[in-house]
Automatic annotation (TrEMBL):
The keyword Metal-binding does not apply. The keyword Repeat applies. One of its GO terms (molecular function) is amino acid binding. Residues 136-218, 344-423 form the ACT domain. InterPro entries: ACR1-12, ACT-like_dom_sf, ACT_dom. CDD domains: ACT_ACR_3. This is ACT domain-containing protein ACR. SUPFAM superfamilies: ACT-like. It holds the Pfam family ACT. Keywords: Repeat. Binds amino acids.
Length: 444
């Protein structure tokens, strides 16, 4: 272990909003530099700034939202200064050479951490900015087959149009952030009585046997993935019985040990690499009120390795076995939540009210359950991604897929990754989908 300098153990340094702190930040604006010559296979981004609680998450979030792949990272934020180096590539694994894109990256990072920027409140819920475009609905509860179908059907019956949504399931728990508009006006729903009715209906649908569901309505926009991590952490999705753990996917290797000489706790993680892994782990550590003082990340291979030197926000290292176990459990859950269990289906078609309800109903009628979903509307087009599996946990049979695609439309619903599924035909009459059962109203 390298002999790092001692950091400031006072939690007040993270919370201070006095004029001196503001002056320091103003006199030391962030410096973002990009180096495209030192590394043959990655673009190097250097970020230097006055330190502030949550700044690491803010930078990682920007890189993730820009769809950059972090191959390596070096983190140092002891004392009053934050210095990070990120080796990144684009989605295809190539260096970023376009100067306009590089300037855009610098600008986004600067705006997110510059003096006066709006940091995400790292120890509270993700920020919600006022918006008249749509109303946000947040749901947590017990997962079960057909849950998304039931939720979307209720919203359709209540004259709500789903314009965007993201749904995660993990360890028998489910969380969803859904953006809806009024069916007639196309605007956000603001009527208090109607919102209360929507909340009550959805809470009833989401209610589980052992825990009550939680339903929240907000007028605004939020960072959806950030919020989903918070919701599932609050819902304690990291708790599981040993028999459930034995049937889970390969367990990530997470360890937490104390380095007593420097009063750090050292967290190491090894697991299969995947997109957004760095964001997921940093997000969880931040929400658990831990500060990363030093760290390194290496994903140049099939396995990702992350090492962080952390303290609690109050300046103390991990001080009990229960706390150590909880960190391990929560990081394992953070790694697993986004792992896509099931077959990937992509839907692209003209948007309309009730589309999500009809599509998920068809999945349910063919014995499939949705394990994760991303729903988006771009202009007048719906771009949706679903991860589905058999309700018994088995892989989806080819005949089931073909039956679903016949009902929805061959070119509208694309299958990704099924070993026995042939590539879709290049051409198909676009009018075929218009006359499919998907567009004929049906009772649930």
């Amino acid at each position: 272990m390298a002999a790092f300098a001692d950091g400031d153990s006072s939690s007040s340094s993270w919370d201070s909003d006095d004029e001196y702190q503001k002056f320091i930040q103003k006199m030391n604006p962030p410096r973002i530099t990009i180096d495209n010559t030192s590394c043959a296979n990655a673009t190097i981004i250097h970020v230097d700034s006055a330190n502030k609680y949550g700044i690491l998450l803010e930078v990682v979030q920007v890189l993730t939202d820009l769809k950059l792949i972090v191959k390596k990272a070096y983190i140092s934020s002891d004392g009053g200064w934050f210095m990070d180096v990120f080796n990144v590539t684009d989605q295809s694994g190539q260096k970023i050479m376009d100067e306009s894109v590089l300037e855009g990256i610098k600008d986004c990072i600067y705006k997110s951490i510059a003096p006066g920027s709006c940091f995400l409140p790292s120890r509270r819920r993700a920020i919600v900015e006022p918006s008249s475009d749509y109303t946000l609905i947040e749901l947590t509860g017990t997962d079960r087959p057909g849950l998304l179908s039931e939720v979307s059907a209720v919203l359709t019956n209540l004259d709500c149009n789903v314009v965007n949504a993201e749904v995660w399931t993990h360890n028998k728990r489910a969380a969803a952030v859904i953006g809806v508009t009024d069916r007639k006006s196309g605007l956000a729903i603001s009527d208090a009585e109607r919102l209360c009715r929507i909340k009550e209906r959805l809470r009833y649908v989401f209610k589980g046997r052992s825990r009550d569901a939680k339903t929240t309505v907000a007028m605004g926009v939020t960072h959806t993935e950030r919020r989903l991590h918070q919701m599932m952490l609050e819902d304690r999705d990291y708790e599981r019985y040993d028999k459930d753990r034995a049937n889970a996917n390969p367990i990530p290797m997470v360890s937490v040990v104390n380095w007593l000489q420097k009063e750090y706790s050292v967290v190491t993680m090894r697991c299969k690499d995947r997109p957004k892994l760095l964001f997921d782990t940093v997000c969880t550590l931040t929400d658990m009120q831990y500060v990363v003082y030093h760290g390194s990340v290496d994903t140049e291979g099939p396995e990702a390795y992350q090492e962080y030197y952390i303290r609690h926000i109050d300046g103390s290292p991990v001080n009990s076995e229960a706390e150590r176990k909880r960190i391990i459990q929560c990081l394992e859950a953070a790694i697993e939540r986004r792992v896509s269990e099931g077959l990937k289906l992509e839907l692209s078609t003209g948007d309309r009210v009730g589309l999500l309800s009809d599509v998920t109903r068809i999945f349910r009628e063919h014995g499939l359950t949705v394990t994760r979903a991303e729903v988006a509307t771009r202009g007048n087009k719906a771009i949706n991604t679903f991860y589905v599996r058999d309700t018994a946990g088995s892989s989806v049979e080819l005949k089931t897929l073909e039956a679903i695609r016949q009902e929805i439309g061959q070119t509208v619903l694309q299958v990704k990754g099924h070993p026995d599924h042939p590539k879709s035909p290049a051409q198909e009459s676009p009018t075929r989908f218009l006359f499919s059962s998907l567009f004929r109203p049906r009772s649930l």
